[in-house]
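Attaching the record inline, Q. Sequence:
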Amino acid sequence: MKIHTLTRTVVSAGVVLVSVAAAALSGAAPAAAATRYGCEWPRVCFYKTEADWQARRPTATYQDMGYWQTLGSHSAYSEVVYNSRNDDGALLRMQSGITYCVKGGQTTPEFFMPVYQDGAMEELKIMDSKTC
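Structure, as predicted:
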């Protein structure tokens, strides 16, 4: 009886170890693939300065969808915005009321935002549409 119990325990432990190893391997690859420009999926990332962009260090990230979100001091005057949400667009509303669309998987053109011809970015709305 003890041998049967011991064998059962060893087999169960082996199954658990194989399951843990498989989970670790399957979890590692998507996490690495899901990060681009230092921006984890599913987020819209803001890079305040050129140095932040070059270092792949977002200064603000957003992931809630479906409503206008007021941008804070770490995102309002950002130089680059990257949308890691492949199937969702990100609308940026400027002070002037004009909106820009950052399509899924795209960035604003590098260093586009400092021009601010339409004022600072005020709000973000993540849309359930790749093209906004």
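Residues 1-33 have pLDDT under 50 and may be disordered. The two ends are 66 Å apart (CA to CA).

More tomorrow.
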